[in-house]
């Protein structure tokens, strides 16, 4: 019979695996942890009681709201709201009518969607909030990518979403992320990164839209090198050293003014 310490160590490992992957099936956890399915089920039940995961049919998804993890959409929408709106308007100016645009999920990309609503565009997105917003009008054609819907974010992820993205093409991709450091852009888990990487593969131009609070931060999963990004759009809250670093990159830098008085 395993000791209490052994059980706790195994559950910590299970939690770490789920934090990295976002979602894992029972079969995957059984194989990696080298225990029975019934044991994994008990571990997931314990982790769910701790508020770390949510059990699903055939597996579990990581949901803990801590640094580097995905917060509920409504909660994140109020964080740096003015900055995100300014970024949304600036990105919208880069998009020409008649184009096919891929839109990533998240609150910054939602502000981009608000800024382009009603325009003659073809938008492909894996985000339910964005699809709902844009589908209310007649001018914008919306293609919604399906898949596993990540809890509280309304974003479709997983292999099904990746396969569907591979079937489309966009002139531009607008994506956001959880952190940007000198070694690249990062996001919350590998499920998110998997779909975003596929979006990058089918787009002619990649626009990274991030508010100033994301710089100097990393999250669990590395998304890409900044050399793979064509345009970086941020707000005027970015500090001097960070701005100079961004200006040294190959990507075009756009600083969105949050007020009319901003330079």
Automatic annotation (TrEMBL):
SUPFAM superfamilies per UniProt: NagB/RpiA/CoA transferase-like, Winged helix' DNA-binding domain
Species this chain originates from: marine sediment metagenome
Alphabetized PANTHER family for the sequence: GLYCEROL-3-PHOSPHATE REGULON REPRESSOR (PTHR30363:SF4), HTH-TYPE TRANSCRIPTIONAL REGULATOR SRLR-RELATED (PTHR30363)
Name of the protein in its database record: HTH deoR-type domain-containing protein
InterPro entries xrefs: Carb_Metab_HTH_regulators, DeoR-like_C, DeoR_HTH, NagB/RpiA_transferase-like, WH-like_DNA-bd_sf, WH_DNA-bd_sf
Transcription regulation keyword on record: yes
Annotated keywords: Repressor, Transcription, Transcription regulation
Domain HTH deoR-type intervals: 7-62
Lineage: unclassified sequences, metagenomes, ecological metagenomes
Gene Ontology MF terms: DNA-binding transcription factor activity
